[in-house]
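Minutes, methods subgroup
Present: GH (chair), OT, SY

1. OT presented the first of two proteins processed in the latest run. Sequence and structure tokens recorded below as shown on screen.
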Amino acid sequence: MLTTIRSLCIAILVAAVGATAHAADSYAVDPVHSSVSFKSLHAGISYIHGRFDDVSGQFVIDKDDPAKSSFALSIKTESVNTNNAKRDEHLRAPDYFNVKQFPTLTFQSTSVKAVEGGYETTGDLTLHGVKKPVTFTLKGGDKTVEFPKGMMRVGFTVLLSIKRSDFDMKTGLEALSDEIFIDMGVEAVKQ
């Protein structure tokens, strides 16, 4: 009888611990509700704006242990769009993105930590065949919403800048600024 009660207590304890354990949540980027845009100073007088139309990625978010979270994003460089077909073709050429040789721009996190308003994320940005570490803050992620019914989603925004010369994109530095400003709004759906 004592053995049965002890076994029952252990089973209840294991069930209680299992019920309170939190599993990380996996999300897939929703390209319909996500955008990656950029701007570059032209001739030192005004900005030219553009975006990428093909964005995908995966997030794993562990709110109990943010260090176990991860963020991955992939962008097809051929999807560059500055609302000018001739300029876009030039940006796809070897002078700039060289989309035939480097069809994707990727980011893969290597460390994540919670900060006020989001997550400080460090990872490898690979652009034009060059991989460099970058750190930025993903703002958001503190709440999920159900939209449409049955689809739980999370969202983040990011503002950062990079130097294109760091990624061996040095063409036209006298006309287009080296510093590129990137603005992302990304929504992801829970899997």
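2. SY then presented the second protein from the same run.
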Amino acid sequence: MAREAGMDLVEVAPNGAPPVCRLMDYGKWKYDQKKKAHKAKVKQHHVTLKEIRMRPKTDEHDRRFKLKKARQFLTEGDKVQFTMLFRGREMMHLDLAIEKFNVIVQELGDAGRLEVPPKKMGRRMTMVLAPEKPEVKKLKEEAPAPATGTVAPNNLSGEPS
């Protein structure tokens, strides 16, 4: 039957009782599978880890510039690792570095979330921020913000709550 139809006889389930075969154009099937795999691969986004280095004495302007770049990385879907480098007596003021990291997390809270909290490794302290998931962002944007003086759902009299 396969020869008459100009197709291939392909064994689909050899362990079945009885074994199952199918009439198909095997070359076309392989081509379609390859195209599907390529299409899936193209749509993938590989998350990369970008690093931003700073020191405890990094000036406000430089820190803002680095945060602007970090926000760009997060909106593109990349993770951002902040590394605080310490030299000499700066090791005595780890609390200042943690405060700076907390400020960074607060300022980038809308673009990303804290994935790895600050950890000290030798003369470095690192933390990682991951991008905010797009589905969560859409839900936040669609939800209306409660306005002042609105009528509550359980208040049917129409008076502001």
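Chair's summary of item 2: The chain has two domains: 2-37, 49-136.
Next meeting: continue with the remaining queue.
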